[in-house]
Specification:
single chain; alpha/beta; Metallo-beta-lactamase, Chain A; 7-stranded mixed beta sheet; 4-stranded antiparallel beta sheet; about 30% strand; binds zinc ion
Length: about 200
Amino acid sequence: MSNQSFASSTDLADRSQTLEILADGVYALTADGDPNIGAIEGDDFVVCFEALATPVAAKQWLAMLREHTAKPVRYLVLSHYHAVRVLGAAAYDATAVIAHENTAALIEERGLEDWDSEFARFPRFAKGAETIPGLTRPTVTFADRLTIDLGPTRGPLVLEYVGRGHTEGDIVAWLPNQKILYTGDLIEAEAALYTRGRIPP
Ligand SMILES: [Zn+2]
């Protein structure tokens, strides 16, 4: 265990969050350098992409989303296992939580360790941590590709595994009709792909 202190561990200020409408029924929550997340409307349900770090943070995002749609969240998609993206899952009441099969395995293998590590490194994400009921476990997993039919007017949402990258289980969400791609942590603004100092095995 190193005593190294990350620069971010004293960074407690909230980043400003902005709901952006990317296309009709397609949303992003951008957070000034923090992880961006999203939501996609189907004809009669919503797909949320990423859960945020705590149910408290997720409820703030859902309140912003609810100004645009009242449809229930049927699917919560997790791009990878990292704590700041998955531990808010309980707030969504999603019918299914979807992730890659490697992500399900990584949550069992190192989910608790990552929870401790990320909340220590980024204390501002840990606000409301007492509302986290436990590790987030996907209820639906896949190996290569999973397509969600958003309905006749909106087309498909394609979830796809594109190989090992930021972790061993990253997936992207692609809207072919709208030509919009959600990438999780596979792409970061003004930064190279972060693999925590190692090439995934
Ligand atoms: Zn990550």
